[in-house]
Specification:
It contains 11 helices and 14 strands. Strand 11, helix 7 and strand 12 form a beta-alpha-beta unit. The protein is α/β, with parallel strands linked by helices. It has 2 domains: 62 residues, 2-Layer Sandwich (Alpha-Beta Plaits), CATH 3.30.70; 257 residues, TIM Barrel (Alpha-Beta Barrel). The chain is 36% helix and 17% strand.
Length: 340
């Protein structure tokens, strides 16, 4: 539920409501706006009546959250959550772009790619140290050695780094190296893993599952939020449909819909969403027009020789052109808003 305080409610009145909720066993999250203070409370609704919250001084209204995802809902938090990583902010309208190869294949190649994407405007650097592959015979990643290479690239470029964690036992290891922990599509409903990353004080990039509904995706985010980590970034990366001309079907309708339902930032991955490099730029621009809070793009200096996902990787020069077009679309949208 949400407790809306009256305009001008005193700190003492707000604290009195907070203490009563805590005493009743609710987890309380305070959100202070310009005109109103809101307390989001998660717990047993049957205890609500015994709290008599509306009788307390300073309380304007008590609203029950009907959606199954409580903490991720727009009802729970009206203002957008902004996740700051280094100089990049997801959710403030600045449109950071994460770029890099699918996998960390070796030190020299990764450092070269890192410098290339940095020069062309990337805000963060991606790469897979642990690779979940359909075939057990495919390249599975360099493990901790890959993490060390990524950390070196961060030291050289200044770009924060993003990589995927595969299981609970690897969370602390990955967290020691990276700036954003990614939970991949195949692990979106690995609830024990979600709880574990929820205990880490680092942003989590949560990708939508291959066949997940929007509600299931937001419920996965709820696990992380409920475990104490409020730094969640959602990523639309395409869902599996009957279409075979693309790797997945990129569901861009999910972007504005989720932003209506939730306060969490939403980014888009057109690389995995289409599986075709010639579709990455148009779908990136469409994602920006839909209101996404960022992009994640696969870039490789020689896609033909990539150990994974070569067909959906841009060369650095094409990534640079994409960045120019993204900035142009972003500026056009900003100009439209100013005219309105």
């Amino acid at each position: 539920m949400v407790v809306v305080m009256k305009k001008g409610a005193t700190p003492e009145q707000i604290n009195a409501v907070n203490q009563r909720l805590l005493a009743a066993g609710f987890n309380v999250h305070l959100s202070e706006g310009v005109n109103r203070t809101i307390l989001g409370a998660v717990g047993d609704r049957q205890r609500l009546e015994a709290c008599s919250l509306e009788a307390l001084p300073g309380v304007e209204n008590v609203v029950a959250i009907l959606k199954p995802f409580k903490m991720a809902s727009r009802e729970f938090k009206v203002t957008n959550t902004v996740v700051k990583v280094g100089n990049a902010c997801f959710g403030d309208g600045s449109m950071p772009v994460i770029a890099g190869p699918c996998a960390v294949e070796g030190r020299e190649l990764f450092l070269e790619t890192a410098l290339e994407v940095k020069a062309r405007g990337a805000s963060l650097l991606r790469g897979g140290a642990f690779k979940p592959r359909t075939s057990p015979y495919s390249f599975q990643g360099l493990g901790e050695e890959g993490l060390k290479i990524m950390a070196e690239a961060r030291d050289i470029t200044g770009l924060p780094i993003v990589t995927e964690v595969m299981d609970q036992k690897s969370v602390s290891l990955v967290a020691d190296y990276v700036d954003i922990i990614q939970v991949g599509a195949r692990n979106m409903q690995n609830f024990f893993l979600l709880k574990e990353v929820g205990k880490i004080n680092k942003p989590v990039l949560l990708k939508r599952g291959l066949a997940a509904t929007i509600e299931e995706w937001l419920m996965a985010a709820e696990y992380i939020l409920d475990s104490g980590n409020e730094q969640v970034i959602l990523c639309e990366r395409g869902i599996r449909t009957f279409e075979t001309y693309t790797r997945n079907t990129l569901d861009l309708s999910a972007v504005p819909l989720v932003k209506q339902l939730s306060h969490l930032p939403v980014i888009v991955d057109p690389s995995h969403g289409t599986g075709k490099r010639e579709l990455i730029t148009p779908m990136s621009l469409a994602a920006v027009a839909c209101g996404c809070d960022g992009l994640i793009i696969e870039v490789h200096t020689n896609p033909a020789e990539a150990w994974s996902d070569g067909p959906q990787s841009l060369i650095p020069d094409d990534f640079g052109l994409l960045m120019e077009q993204v900035r142009a679309v972003k500026m056009a949208l900003s100009a439209d808003r100013r005219e309105d």
